[in-house]
């Protein structure tokens, strides 16, 4: 039976940690608008071609209203962060959403991120030093990938360094859809919410040089600013969004570079390739998680296929990033590829707000690792690396390395 006659299960099962499932290429060529069954049992439509994914992500008719009564549920228990009550507090469309993005986005400019580079590098150096002290091998994900983005976002939110590990636990509990019980997740959300309420109140009383203080200083809704609850949820959302995705990407990027160690050697010989290498790692990431779900408010067509109102579409940016019609030698990792218009951060009005932060963290991690651990190598064969099983974000369970 060919792909366009069967209904695939989604996410498509794949054991290889760094390689894409074979079905992607077949779907792109033969069935770019495919019917899939989600973990909940509900049906959705999967897009895998570059032009289609880019078009849908930029089209305001495809919304994030996954709570609509006829929207597909992503998982049987409702789908975690995509459809929680918290997700409803930040406006997700129209002028209100653009206003929120403008207020928060001022903190995520490339210029601001460049100013943070020295402190990011110091955090990375300290984490690598701690890992090296513990022995001649270690888990790069747990030692560096996981804590670094939390520590950086804590700095941006003005959270005391002493509280970083609590933040790590909370964000993991709220994002990992399989590791914790519902009771643990609810307890983490309550504790996190309580902490952020007190933290916002403290910033209101004694502002600092941080994102939350600046949002408070912009005034309330009547002054064109955000309400207290929106500021609080923005703080939580930034921590969650900016943490797990980048933590996993650090591990996957380093794994890709060490799986074929000529890539690592090339970077050691020419560190000016770090910037293009980060972009190519983002494009090549075949294990980025679920993709972006969208809900269609009115009927339309994609690639000549009619989609009725009420369709839930899943955009696979990872499959689109390997589309031969958009990227020459799309399945080859080219550390010099430029331009590289990949869709790892989405596209259009909802493209990732924190992309300058993620890029900067990934660049800094590579700079510091190449400088401090030039002899870094995988401690297991690449084929033995294991994927994290979970719905929202893809990653490796661990990244065993030695130096």
Could you characterize what this model shows?
The chain is of the alpha+beta class. Helices cover 48% and strands 9% of the residues. It is built from 15 helices and eleven strands. The strands form three sheets. A six-stranded mixed beta sheet has the order 1-2-3-9-6-4. Strand 7 and strand 8 (305-307) form a beta hairpin. It is globular, with a radius of gyration of 21 Å. Belongs to the cytochrome P450 family.
Structural class: alpha+beta
Q: How do the strands line up in the largest sheet?
A: 1-2-3-9-6-4
Query: Could you give a short account of the major beta sheet?
Result: 6 strands, mixed
Total number of strands: 11
Distance between the termini: 48 Å
Query: Could you tell me the strand content as a percent range?
Result: 5-15%
Order of helices and strands: EHEEHEHHHEHHHHHHHHEEEEHHEE
The CATH architecture can be named as Orthogonal Bundle
Evaluate the radius of gyration. 21 Å
State the fourth-level CATH superfamily: Cytochrome P450
Looking at the structure, what is the overall shape?
globular
- Show unreliable segments: 78-83
Count of folded domains: 1
What is the count of helical runs? Answer: 15
- What integer is the average pLDDT? 90
Which fold name corresponds to the CATH topology?
A: Cytochrome p450
